[in-house]
Amino acid sequence: MNLEKTGMSIIAGSLVLLSGCAALQRPTAPVRFSDGVLVNGGGMTLYTFDKDTKGKSTCVSQCAVNWPPLTATAEDKPGRGYSVIVRDDGSRQWAYEGKPLYLWAKDQKPGDKTGDGVNKTWHVVAEPAQPDSSGGGGY
Protein backbone atom coordinates (compact mmCIF):
# COMPACT_ATOMS: atom_id res chain seq x y z
CA MET A 1 0.00 0.00 0.00
CA ASN A 2 1.39 3.40 -0.96
CA LEU A 3 0.97 5.59 2.14
CA GLU A 4 1.59 8.81 0.19
CA LYS A 5 -1.28 8.08 -2.21
CA THR A 6 -3.51 6.89 0.63
CA GLY A 7 -2.78 10.06 2.61
CA MET A 8 -3.56 12.24 -0.41
CA SER A 9 -6.82 10.35 -0.97
CA ILE A 10 -7.84 10.91 2.62
CA ILE A 11 -7.00 14.61 2.40
CA ALA A 12 -8.83 15.00 -0.91
CA GLY A 13 -11.87 13.18 0.45
CA SER A 14 -11.86 15.31 3.59
CA LEU A 15 -11.72 18.51 1.54
CA VAL A 16 -14.68 17.41 -0.55
CA LEU A 17 -16.63 16.57 2.61
CA LEU A 18 -15.72 19.88 4.26
CA SER A 19 -16.64 21.90 1.19
CA GLY A 20 -20.03 20.16 1.16
CA CYS A 21 -20.57 21.04 4.81
CA ALA A 22 -19.59 24.65 4.19
CA ALA A 23 -22.11 24.85 1.36
CA LEU A 24 -24.87 23.70 3.72
CA GLN A 25 -24.02 26.49 6.18
CA ARG A 26 -23.89 29.33 3.63
CA PRO A 27 -27.35 30.66 2.80
CA THR A 28 -28.20 31.50 -0.77
CA ALA A 29 -30.72 34.15 0.29
CA PRO A 30 -30.52 36.90 -2.32
CA VAL A 31 -30.33 39.62 0.31
CA ARG A 32 -27.90 42.00 1.98
CA PHE A 33 -28.01 44.95 4.35
CA SER A 34 -27.74 48.39 2.73
CA ASP A 35 -28.16 51.74 4.48
CA GLY A 36 -29.24 49.91 7.63
CA VAL A 37 -32.05 47.82 6.11
CA LEU A 38 -32.38 44.44 4.44
CA VAL A 39 -32.67 44.60 0.64
CA ASN A 40 -32.99 42.08 -2.17
CA GLY A 41 -30.37 41.56 -4.89
CA GLY A 42 -31.72 44.57 -6.79
CA GLY A 43 -31.45 46.86 -3.76
CA MET A 44 -35.20 46.96 -3.06
CA THR A 45 -36.20 47.19 0.60
CA LEU A 46 -37.60 44.09 2.31
CA TYR A 47 -40.37 44.10 4.90
CA THR A 48 -42.01 41.89 7.51
CA PHE A 49 -45.70 41.73 8.43
CA ASP A 50 -46.82 41.76 12.09
CA LYS A 51 -49.77 39.44 11.37
CA ASP A 52 -47.46 36.63 10.20
CA THR A 53 -46.40 34.00 12.68
CA LYS A 54 -42.96 32.45 12.80
CA GLY A 55 -42.48 30.44 9.61
CA LYS A 56 -46.00 31.17 8.29
CA SER A 57 -47.20 33.85 5.89
CA THR A 58 -50.72 35.21 6.27
CA CYS A 59 -50.32 37.66 3.36
CA VAL A 60 -52.33 36.09 0.52
CA SER A 61 -54.56 37.18 -2.38
CA GLN A 62 -54.53 40.98 -2.83
CA CYS A 63 -52.11 41.34 0.05
CA ALA A 64 -49.52 39.28 -1.86
CA VAL A 65 -50.07 41.49 -4.93
CA ASN A 66 -49.34 44.63 -2.89
CA TRP A 67 -46.60 42.91 -0.88
CA PRO A 68 -44.92 40.37 -3.19
CA PRO A 69 -43.20 37.59 -1.26
CA LEU A 70 -39.43 37.27 -1.67
CA THR A 71 -39.54 33.98 -3.55
CA ALA A 72 -37.16 31.08 -3.02
CA THR A 73 -36.49 27.93 -5.02
CA ALA A 74 -36.22 24.33 -3.94
CA GLU A 75 -32.44 24.57 -4.50
CA ASP A 76 -31.94 27.57 -2.17
CA LYS A 77 -29.97 26.83 0.99
CA PRO A 78 -31.17 28.37 4.27
CA GLY A 79 -28.77 29.27 7.06
CA ARG A 80 -27.41 32.08 9.27
CA GLY A 81 -30.83 33.39 10.29
CA TYR A 82 -32.45 32.78 6.90
CA SER A 83 -34.98 30.06 6.21
CA VAL A 84 -37.33 29.06 3.43
CA ILE A 85 -41.01 28.63 4.23
CA VAL A 86 -43.69 26.97 2.12
CA ARG A 87 -46.70 29.19 1.49
CA ASP A 88 -50.28 27.87 1.42
CA ASP A 89 -50.17 27.85 -2.40
CA GLY A 90 -47.06 25.63 -2.33
CA SER A 91 -44.62 28.35 -3.41
CA ARG A 92 -41.48 29.04 -1.39
CA GLN A 93 -40.60 32.26 0.37
CA TRP A 94 -37.51 33.51 2.18
CA ALA A 95 -37.80 34.37 5.86
CA TYR A 96 -35.39 36.15 8.22
CA GLU A 97 -35.39 34.96 11.83
CA GLY A 98 -38.60 33.08 11.00
CA LYS A 99 -40.39 36.16 9.64
CA PRO A 100 -41.45 35.94 5.97
CA LEU A 101 -39.91 38.63 3.75
CA TYR A 102 -41.80 40.84 1.29
CA LEU A 103 -41.28 43.65 -1.19
CA TRP A 104 -43.69 46.62 -1.39
CA ALA A 105 -45.30 47.29 -4.76
CA LYS A 106 -45.18 51.08 -4.24
CA ASP A 107 -41.41 51.20 -3.78
CA GLN A 108 -40.17 52.43 -7.15
CA LYS A 109 -36.38 52.37 -6.89
CA PRO A 110 -33.59 50.93 -4.73
CA GLY A 111 -33.47 52.68 -1.39
CA ASP A 112 -37.20 53.49 -1.25
CA LYS A 113 -38.75 52.55 2.11
CA THR A 114 -42.31 53.78 1.58
CA GLY A 115 -43.82 50.62 3.05
CA ASP A 116 -42.31 51.10 6.50
CA GLY A 117 -45.15 51.59 8.98
CA VAL A 118 -48.01 50.98 6.53
CA ASN A 119 -51.11 50.15 8.62
CA LYS A 120 -48.72 50.01 11.59
CA THR A 121 -48.11 46.35 10.66
CA TRP A 122 -45.40 46.49 7.96
CA HIS A 123 -41.78 47.15 8.89
CA VAL A 124 -38.37 47.30 7.27
CA VAL A 125 -35.89 44.73 8.52
CA ALA A 126 -33.28 46.79 10.34
CA GLU A 127 -29.65 45.76 10.37
CA PRO A 128 -28.68 44.24 13.72
CA ALA A 129 -26.52 46.48 15.87
CA GLN A 130 -22.85 45.61 15.64
CA PRO A 131 -20.98 45.11 18.92
CA ASP A 132 -18.52 47.85 19.85
CA SER A 133 -15.15 46.65 18.58
CA SER A 134 -13.14 49.59 19.93
CA GLY A 135 -12.09 47.54 22.94
CA GLY A 136 -12.58 50.53 25.21
CA GLY A 137 -15.43 49.02 27.17
CA GLY A 138 -16.87 52.49 27.75
CA TYR A 139 -14.68 53.26 30.77
Question: Would you kindly provide a written description of the structure presented here, covering whatever features stand out?
Answer:
The structure is a single chain. With 139 residues, the protein is of the alpha+beta class. It has a domain at 28-124. Helix content is 20%, strand content 20%. The chain is built from 2 helices and 8 strands. The protein has helices spanning 3-25, 62-66; strands at residues 31-34, 37-40, 47-49, 71-72, 82-86, 92-96, 99-100, 122-124. The strands form 3 sheets. Strands 4, 5, 6 and 7 form a 4-stranded antiparallel sheet that branches. A two-stranded antiparallel ribbon has the order 1-2. Strand 6 and strand 7 form a beta hairpin. It is globular, with a radius of gyration of 20 Å. The chain starts with a helix and ends in a 15-residue tail after the last strand.
In short:
The chain is an alpha+beta fold. It has helices at 3-25, 62-66, and strands at residues 31-34, 37-40, 47-49, 71-72, 82-86, 92-96, 99-100, 122-124. Strands 4, 5, 6 and 7 form a four-stranded antiparallel sheet that branches. It has a two-stranded antiparallel sheet with strand order 1-2. Strands 3-8 form a two-stranded antiparallel ribbon.
